Amino acid sequence: MADYNYDVLVIGAGPGGYVAAIRAAQLGMKVACAEGRATLGGTCLNVGCIPSKALLHGSELFEEAHDGTLAKFGVKTGPVELDLGVMQGEKISAVKELTGGIEYLFKKNKVDWLKGYATFKDAHSVDVAGQTVTAKHIVIATGSSVMPLPGVAVDNDAGIIVDSTGALALDRVPSHMVVIGGGVIGLELGSVWRRLGAKVTVVEYLDQLLPGMDGEVRKDAAKIFKKQGMTLKLSTKVTGASVVGKTATLTLEPAAGGPAETLEADCVLVAIGRRPNTDGLGLANIGLELNARGQVETDHDFRTKIDGVWAIGDVVPGPMLAHKAEDEGIAVAENIAGLTGIVNHDVIPGVVYTTPEFAGVGLTEEAAKARGAIKVGKFPMLANSRAKTNREPDGFVKIIADAATDRVLGVWAIATVAGTMIAEAALAMEFGATSEDIAYTCHAHPTHSEAIKEAAMAVTGKPIHI
Ligand code: FAD
Ligand code: NAI
């Protein structure tokens, strides 16, 4: 240790990096975390998970007051008006409280925040804001940023063609928002602005929304978002954009080729994915090469090929999710400390926080079938007493189990609280549960989670309420 300033230096203070730093400090190591952004928490807290959920929550309340949902339950309101400034203010407060919370946790755990962007000099030293800092172990947790779309230039300040960061900060409700990319960001932020009054058109390259999710979930997603008023242009690609005054004109073509058409909008959200952050990191100085997708490869312990250099989160392969990054942060710190840090990448839940929510963990039905014989149990939310009482008719739970062993391979849910429900499925899968284990577990009544129990009962053909 005497040779180094720190035992561990983490580069990046997103959910991967800040968690790694805190856990390493908890394990008795001397830790620093370099972060160039003005506040801690990375993409997730500053321009991702947290601000998007603040606007999803606010816009959901607005829609409920506006579309007659509250009135249906006997809650009389006067004329309902949107104060977008107040809604954005609530978002800013939540972000400030949470990013400030990480700063407090750093102080509490004696993690030094090195303010600036880090560049490797060699495998044990980096430059941060003109200073050279050395560490026995360096963890790359630099995250990801928006993938640009050639021919469609983003200008968040102008607010006409924006990325997710711009779409989270709009100071007006667009009259027509075109979302390029029917993935998680497009549908979450498209929902926000649709609820607040925008006409929303989603242009998706593939023939279905939400790539990576179960096929049936994806099909239902298209029906549900259409029913909510979104226009979907599937199997369509955007080939160019121009802005004149406050209007953008997009050129669209069928994904398979064919005649072009144009589409006008006063706001365009580009949400076609994210790419790992490695520019300026000086990886060439340590001889660390990227894979074909620009990611840093590691082994199961999160070690890169360079001794003493580790990597986690969005910058490494796998789903770009905050909870995956956090779990990898804990595991890498434990591995550095000589303990056994493991992340089960087969059981990482994914959730789209729209209304209803779309959630899943484990294999899709298609992937499970390709592996071998399966049994599937399905239960509609329409037959779940709580969802029915709350007037939340959309959705279902589906449990996919191995036909021979009954072990649960995947669980998919569409329900207003599917994101919360899916935690039970992840826990069951982590413990190697069978569908019978879930079916014979007592679930509180009346809860949405009873649909998971009923879907498990349906695997053997014996749900009660349908
Ligand atoms: P990041 O959070 O990207 O943090 C990396 C940090 O490293 C950044 O702060 C960056 O400034 C810093 N950095 C980069 N290079 C350097 C350097 N050289 N020196 C110092 N610092 C550096 N995921 C979910 O699970 N749930 C959600 O609801 C969700 N919602 C999202 C909504 C939006 C709009 C977006 C864009 C993303 C969302 N995500 C969500 C994804 C989630 O934000 C990421 O998966 C997560 O933040 C990845 O964590 P990370 O620590 O790997 O990287
Ligand atoms: P995504 O990968 O979820 O979706 C991008 C979509 O754009 C895909 O459906 C893709 O087929 C489509 N696409 C690609 N090129 C296109 C083109 N030229 N024209 C039209 N469509 C095109 O990526 P997204 O939504 O940008 O999100 C990035 C990451 O952020 C995701 O990987 C996700 O994990 C994470 N995220 C997670 C959230 C959550 O957990 N709730 C919320 C928001 C983001």
Secondary structure elements and their pairing?
Layout: E1 6-11, H1 15-26, E2 31-35, H2 42-47, H3 49-66, H4 69-72, H5 84-108, E3 111-115, E4 118-122, E5 125-128, E6 131-140, E7 144-146, E8 161-162, H6 164-167, E9 176-180, H7 184-195, E10 199-203, H8 215-227, E11 231-233, E12 236-244, E13 247-254, E14 261-265, E15 267-270, E16 274-276, E17 309-311, H9 322-336, E18 350-352, E19 357-362, H10 365-371, E20 374-380, H11 385-389, E21 396-402, E22 408-415, H12 418-430, H13 435-439, H14 450-459
Parallel strand pairs: 1-2, 1-6, 2-3, 6-17, 8-15, 9-10, 9-15, 10-11
Antiparallel strand pairs: 4-5, 5-6, 7-16, 12-13, 13-14, 18-19, 19-22, 20-21, 21-22
Helix pairs in contact: 1-9, 3-5, 3-7
Bound molecules: flavin-adenine dinucleotide and 1,4-dihydronicotinamide adenine dinucleotide.
CATH class of the largest domain: Alpha Beta
CATH architecture of the largest domain: 3-Layer(bba) Sandwich
Each distinct ligand: flavin-adenine dinucleotide, 1,4-dihydronicotinamide adenine dinucleotide
Distance between the termini: 64 Å
What does this structure look like?
The protein is an alpha/beta fold. The protein folds into three domains: 6-146 and 275-336, FAD/NAD(P)-binding domain; 161-272, FAD/NAD(P)-binding domain (3-Layer(bba) Sandwich); 350-458, Enolase-like, domain 1, CATH 3.30.390.30. The chain contains 14 helices and 22 strands. It has helices at residues 15-26, 42-47, 49-66, 69-72, 84-108, 164-167, 184-195, 215-227, 322-336, 365-371, 385-389, 418-430, 435-439, 450-459, and strands at 6-11, 31-35, 111-115, 118-122, 125-128, 131-140, 144-146, 161-162, 176-180, 199-203, 231-233, 236-244, 247-254, 261-265, 267-270, 274-276, 309-311, 350-352, 357-362, 374-380, 396-402, 408-415. Strands 1, 2, 3, 4, 5, 6 and 17 form a seven-stranded mixed β-sheet that branches. Strands 8-15-9-10-11 form a five-stranded parallel β-sheet. Strands 18-19-22-21-20 form a five-stranded antiparallel β-sheet, sandwiched between helices. Strand 1 (6-11), helix 1 and strand 2 (31-35) form a beta-alpha-beta unit. Helix 3 (49-66) packs parallel to helix 7. The model has no long low-confidence stretch (mean pLDDT 97). Bound molecules: flavin-adenine dinucleotide (FAD) and 1,4-dihydronicotinamide adenine dinucleotide.
